[in-house]
Design goal:
Blueprint lengths: L19 H10 L16 E7 L3 E8 L8 E2 L4 E8 L1 E9 L5 E9 L3 E4 L5 E4 L6 E8 L6 E6 L3 E4 L3
Antiparallel strand pairs: 1-2, 2-9, 3-10, 4-7, 4-9, 5-6, 5-8, 10-11
Length: about 160
């Protein structure tokens, strides 16, 4: 154990310096912050804004079995998402430097997280038989989404091109 001198100055934590996975995990564990927002929509994946400041947005999402996103990226945003309950599968698609299509499949369970950056093209879905909940952190551009077309065999192509 060590002693901290009385004249020690504690700096206020800068939230942006915290890794977005740590932020997502913090919100995922603090259900009192978002419990009142949670809904399940049988027609589409549900989302609700939990918190926003000048640096980041934190969103709650619920996924009924079979619900999914389109193939997309988050334009200029960086961030992360954490599974709170249930299971989600993230499929990432990209073209390598030599033109080959690379597809990665990441099955995720409660407590697991994924990060993303500009140009990170992915598809997220709930393959399980139970609802899933996730918390998403978006920085440098908010929750913008840009759609892609194509397949995981041919590789992604932006829908607006």
């Amino acid at each position: 154990m060590f002693a901290v001198p009385d004249n020690t100055v504690a700096l206020v934590e800068n939230a942006v310096q915290r890794h977005p996975v740590r932020v997502a995990l913090e919100y995922a564990h603090d259900r009192d912050r978002w419990r009142h927002l949670l809904r399940y929509d049988p027609d589409q994946r549900f989302s609700a804004l939990i918190a926003r400041d000048e640096e980041q947005e934190i969103w709650l999402m619920s996924w009924l079995p079979g619900q999914q996103t389109d193939l997309h990226d988050h334009v200029e945003s960086t961030g992360a998402f954490t599974v709170v309950t249930g299971t989600l599968t993230e499929t990432v698609s990209r073209k390598s430097a030599d033109g080959r299509v690379v597809t990665e499949v990441h099955p995720l369970v409660a407590g697991q997280s994924r990060v993303f950056a500009p140009g990170y093209v992915h598809h997220v879905h709930n393959p399980g038989g139970d609802p899933a909940i996730s918390v998403h952190v978006y920085r440098s551009g908010g929750r913008a989404m840009r759609s892609y077309r194509g397949s995981f065999v041919d590789g992604p192509t932006r829908s607006d091109t």
